[in-house]
Amino acid sequence: MDKIVRVNMSDLTTRMEAVPSEWAGLGGRALTSAIVAAEVIPTCHPLGENNKLVFAPGLLSGTTAANSGRFSAGAKSPLTGTIKESNAGGTAAQMFARLGIKALIIEGLPRGDSWYGLRVNKDGVSIAEETELIGKGNFAVVEALEARLGKKCGVLTIGPAGEMRMLSANISVKDSDSKLRSHGRGGLGAVMGSKRIKFIAIDDSGAAGITLADPEKFKAAARTFARALIEHPATGEGLPTFGTAEMVNIVNAAGGLPTRNFTYGRFEKHENISGETLRDTIIARGGSPKHGCQPGCIIQCSQVYNDKDGKYVTSGFEYETIEMLGANACIGDLDVIARADHLMDDIGVDSIETAVAIGVAMEAGVLPFGDGEGVLRLLREEIGAGTPLGRILGSGAGNVGRAYGVTRVPVVKNQAIPAYDPRSIKGIGITYATSTMGADHTSGYAVGTNLMGVGGGIVDPLKKEGQVELSRHLQIITVMLDSVGLCLFIGFPAADIPTCVPALIDMLNARFGLELTPEWIGGLGVTTLKTERAFNIAAGFTNKDDRLPEFFREPVAPHNAVWDFSGEEIDEFWNF
Amino acid sequence: MRVTVNLYATFRSGRFEQELRDFPLGTMLREVVAAVGIAESEIGMSLVNGCHAPMERALRDGDSIYLFPLLGGG
């Protein structure tokens, strides 16, 4: 029987609750957003006692459905002040699902200076004071917890950045290789730090596991679903071969590659940091060009990157991190970026927010553009150590811009714009502007349609026509992916392979004994987006916050493209 | 006329990354794709000077052509 597990950090008590009927059909983002909207005061301080941190596996997590192990974390974001859902791979979603935990809700704040660790197992959740691991990096936390609890334990952890309640702090999730995946965006690590929880350890031994309503139907649907992922050239070939860094050359050719803090749309050293170069380098050094962020992933867009001596440096080496440090901060060197990626994972900061913040700091003159060693030093000695400069950098791109008087600050609702220039790829610009999460490419990934024609043909990235409708459609679909526990890239076969969505619906029906139809997707998306927006409006946001920064009115080479949407045109997004 | 042909991802296997090629004036993008031995059905994105271009596009001297298989996202 599925349950809600609640932890109150004010009085250090825990309890298990039945799942209310209105939440029974929800999972992942739809559930975390419903809980935050129902239980968190929208105007509360995100680091105060009235905020709540919620974790939820997707609806299909824990089953054999391919790529269904994404884990959602939700709260009011200290970075944006909006509602937030950030999802990650790793092993936690599947463990929660097998334990029958539909959601973990952490509320209140402890009195005093003690730190705590939570342990989740088949009997529920317990709280224990923690001393040994305080101040430690995320990799050391995983290693120590495996020594204490066994190699199979699941881990959610914050690094020093989360302990210091930095606004770019993330929550890391242990993956199958005892490395890390991250709930990166929106500073949820600071919320966990405010509740003085260093880690959550998960033990799913003796768990009841998943009971399928119709195992035969599920098996057949899961097979059809997996076949669709393999058949689509993006999920079956492109991503497994080159990783997400395949986008470097694509976006550069299209003139939308943010370069030198969004000054140019192309980077002359793009081949140094391309997916093609990444693949060749990984293979030459005995790393792995294929790797899954979660058990059951058949796309394998992650990778294991080694140094020149064949020694492990990082995994989950993503386009956004590579682009924002490589081109936007002009570092142009995969080895340096890989070391920075590892440091950011260990310190526990979002590699998008931090990389964009570094670009703004470079424009401010804190260090020169292209100074890779300088970036490593800032990460280690300033952000990781929590010096005053480190705290400014760890507060995100928007706050770096404010502290140094920079006007070219790529944020929406104070969250950094990632690695696609919205002037040259306008569909993603509408997503940045309107997302309930602040600038977030994953909430409606219009790049696939703008550049590659995913979903039935190209919507010209340089024109305004069709972008609002495209972003709206994608944001609605993405809510479903984020709620079922599916990888974002399922959006490609879902758009292009006719058997994919029916198989997905069949799996849900066979898992829960339901009779959903594909129309369910639209309903879930619309309801969740409206719930999230209502929270933001109650928190004080208006349509005037759905705007891109003023500097995007300046033309960017090579197309001299400008952001030319009017406020009224953007506001049409919410006309549904 | 002379155009620059840029190939990416799997299109580079057994071919090249970038080459200057001579074609008669008015050659269509389709003919360049055929000349480098790529099937049109394999093309995910074709750009001329950084903008999407159909296979019927008549090329001009100095054009830069970018050809990608269907890759996906980041």
Protein traits:
heterodimer; A: 576 residues; alpha+beta; Aldehyde Ferredoxin Oxidoreductase,  A, domain 1; 15% strand; B: 74 residues; mainly beta; Ubiquitin-like (UB roll); 5-stranded mixed β-sheet; 5 strands
Question: What is shown here, in short?
Answer:
Chain A contains 22 helices and 17 strands. By secondary structure, chain A is α+β, with helices and mostly antiparallel strands.
Description:
- Chain A is an alpha+beta fold and 576 residues long.
- Chain A has a domain of 200 residues: Aldehyde Ferredoxin Oxidoreductase,  A, domain 1, CATH 3.60.9.10.
- Helix content of chain A is 39%, strand content 15%.
- Chain A is built from 22 helices and 17 strands.
- Chain A has a six-stranded mixed beta sheet. In chain A, strands 8-7-12-9-10-11 form a six-stranded mixed beta sheet, with helices on both faces. In chain A, strands 13-14-15 form a three-stranded antiparallel beta sheet.
- In chain A, helix 6 packs antiparallel against helix 20, helix 10 crosses helix 11 and helix 10 runs parallel beside helix 12.
- The longest helix of chain A has 20 residues.
- Chain A is globular.
- Chain A starts with a strand and ends in a 5-residue tail after the last helix.
- The model of chain A has no long low-confidence stretch (mean pLDDT 97).
- Chain B is globular, with a radius of gyration of 11 Å.
- A five-stranded mixed beta sheet of chain B has the order 2-1-5-3-4, covered by helices on one side.
- Chain B has a single domain, classed as Roll (Ubiquitin-like (UB roll)).
- The relative contact order of chain B is 0.31.
- In chain B, 9% of the residues lie in helices and 34% in strands.
- Chain B has 74 residues and is mainly beta.
- Chain B contains one helix and five strands.
- Classes of the chains: A alpha+beta (576), B mainly beta (74).
- At the A-B interface, helix 7, helix 8, helix 10 and helix 17 of A face strand 3, strand 4 and strand 5 of B.
